[in-house]
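Design request, tokens follow.
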């Protein structure tokens, strides 16, 4: 088979049997609850609850697709709720970016909520629990609390402050709120069971003292609720029926229930699903922040980042992400998904929608010696062979054109079907050309290839039924735009970025070749008008989109993904 062919290597033919939507136990639970009217006639309510302490990543896309998508399927509703109970790590910048990302993915929330909106209600409920003898103020230090908590194999022991009177607890908690005590000197704890096999139930902390400014409530509060005390109650306030979260919260479920039951409030239910892990990818906001802070990448939106704004800049599309998330579904056990699955869905989407264009990344000049000097003609090229409605465009053709350096070999290795002396190939939609000779510089590098063309093959059609084995892309030298092209590859060089030797570091696994910058790619002139985010397939090369850095004076394109290159594989195997 020819290394390059007319057909798009991204054949969709074999993919059509793949289900777009896989069985998903969360969908089944919701369907069953609707059928049995578990919540009466109330609509199904879900929420997506990010903490605004970083930018969203592909893992969050999975949660978003489940929270919004599954509610949508049954006519339910979804709130976007910021879980903003950690004033020190949270910022408005993140709040804004998260909203933009959710919308970009194609979802719209019913209500925009903040856990901080519920600080007063949560405080009142804490008072209620204190009055019921179910919460107490503890003066142990953080270290002592840890020691008293016990271990997985040993029960904890009661704090000496556990049996304070309701009056004393009320007094102390009120004074905690009033700011009378320094940070870390006291906490409010739920009085549950220090011997519980579940450590989360050993008198969990409900409130801590923290004199810190909050991005929304300013300095109104100097006590802040812990995640476990805030989350379930926030769900309950919003009448969330299905509170879906990742598996690491499974151990917190008994506590989630305990607060709801002991407060006698709306019975939201928590259901845990598997966290998305992808090969070659690290999905942890904390670590991603570290990459940014240590300048390992250019920012949160570096196109190599797994953040939604990073992959958006790289040219990934919400359609592909939604299709991918539908395909992976949800299960009750954690696993790792091959990054190629995501890339498959992305190529599949772009193959259908990307406008084709011709761009030569590593140019080699081809002079057509029998083509009239000074002449320009326009050839008609299809914008997208996968989509007849995409129409055609006129591309200028002239005597001197650029082809890829890889598309010519003076001495062709076996199975090399592209241009070489005496060989005839097709220039896409233009003409058949036959290489005749090469021009070299003093160092012996080929600077030009001279060839002849067959005027009867105009449009790239065979004049007499004779066949050529290669069709190559090209750009007319006189009309070419020069562009910077950024070729991105995986940010990590190991399938499991956390696989590093003792004493090593996750960042030891960063791929040193994750970015290659080409500064003098040659583009067909129609690309002058390309807008960031607009998808292109540079024929035979890959999928690209203009970077936001791109200007009329300096075009910059990002490679979203390469096409699967059959020649690169042959070359690797045979060492050709
Ligand atoms: P990170 O560890 O990256 O900081 P997080 O879980 O702390 O993530 P949150 O802002 O608390 O991030 O997450 C919001 C929602 O997204 C939660 O319901 C969480 O379970 C879910 N989520 C986060 N990461 C993933 C992932 N990799 N796969 C699926 N869901 C995820
Ligand atoms: Mg979190």
């Amino acid at each position: 088979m020819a290394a390059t062919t007319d057909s798009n290597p991204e054949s969709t033919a074999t993919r059509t049997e793949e289900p777009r939507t896989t069985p998903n136990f969360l969908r089944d639970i919701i369907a069953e609850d609707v059928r049995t009217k578990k919540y009466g006639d109330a609509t199904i309510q879900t929420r997506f609850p990010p903490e605004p302490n970083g930018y969203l990543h592909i893992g969050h896309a999975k949660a978003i697709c489940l929270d919004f998508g599954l509610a949508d399927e049954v006519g339910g509703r979804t709130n976007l709720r910021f879980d903003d109970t950690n004033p020190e790590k949270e910022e408005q910048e993140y709040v804004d970016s998260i909203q933009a990302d959710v919308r970009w993915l194609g979802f719209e929330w019913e209500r925009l909520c903040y856990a901080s909106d519920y600080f007063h209600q949560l405080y009142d409920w804490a008072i209620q629990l204190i009055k019921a003898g179910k919460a107490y103020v503890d003066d142990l230090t953080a270290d002592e609390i840890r020691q008293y908590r016990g271990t997985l194999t040993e029960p904890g022991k009661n704090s000496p402050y556990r049996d304070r009177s309701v009056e004393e607890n009320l007094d102390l908690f009120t004074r905690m709120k009033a700011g009378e005590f320094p940070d870390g000197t006291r906490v409010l704890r739920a009085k549950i069971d220090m011997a519980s096999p579940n450590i989360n139930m050993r008198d969990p902390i409900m409130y801590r003292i923290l004199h810190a400014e909050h991005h929304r409530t300013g300095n109104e509060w100097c006590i802040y609720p812990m995640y476990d005390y805030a989350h379930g109650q926030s769900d309950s306030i919003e009448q969330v029926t299905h509170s879906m979260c990742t598996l690491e919260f499974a151990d917190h479920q008994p506590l989630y229930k305990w607060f709801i039951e002991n407060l006698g409030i709306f019975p939201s239910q928590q259901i845990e699903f598997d966290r998305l892990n992808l090969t070659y990818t690290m999905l942890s906001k904390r670590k991603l922040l570290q990459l940014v802070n240590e300048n390992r990448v250019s920012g949160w939106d570096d196109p190599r980042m797994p953040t939604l704004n990073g992959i958006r800049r790289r040219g990934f599309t919400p359609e592909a992400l939604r299709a991918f998330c539908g395909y992976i579904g949800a299960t009750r056990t954690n696993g790792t998904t091959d990054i190629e699955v995501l890339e498959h869905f992305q190529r599949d989407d772009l193959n259908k929608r990307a406008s084709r264009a011709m761009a030569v990344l590593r140019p080699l000049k081809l002079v057509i010696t029998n083509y009239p000097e000074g002449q320009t003609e326009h050839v008609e090229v299809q914008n997208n062979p996968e989509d007849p409605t995409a129409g055609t465009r006129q591309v200028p053709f002239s005597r001197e054109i650029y082809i890829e350096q890889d598309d010519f070999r003076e001495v062709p290795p076996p199975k090399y079907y592209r241009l070489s002396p005496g060989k005839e190939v097709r220039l896409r939609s233009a003409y058949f050309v036959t290489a005749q000779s090469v021009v070299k510089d003093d160092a012996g590098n080929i600077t030009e290839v001279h060839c002849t063309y067959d005027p009867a093959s105009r449009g790239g059609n065979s004049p007499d039924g004779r066949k050529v084995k290669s069709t190559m892309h090209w750009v007319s030298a006189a009309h070419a735009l020069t562009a910077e092209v950024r070729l991105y590859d995986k940010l990590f060089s190991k399938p499991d970025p956390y696989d590093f030797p003792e004493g090593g570091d996750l960042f030891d696994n960063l791929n040193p070749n994750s970015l290659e910058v080409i500064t003098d790619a040659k583009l067909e002139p129609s690309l002058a008008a390309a807008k960031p985010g607009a998808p292109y397939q540079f024929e035979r090369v890959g999928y690209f989109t203009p970077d936001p850095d791109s200007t009329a004076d300096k075009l910059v394109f990002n490679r979203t993904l390469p096409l699967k290159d059959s020649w690169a594989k042959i070359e690797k195997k045979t060492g050709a």
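Comment from the thread starter after seeing the answer: thanks! Residues 51 surround magnesium ion (ligand 2) (CB under 6 Å).
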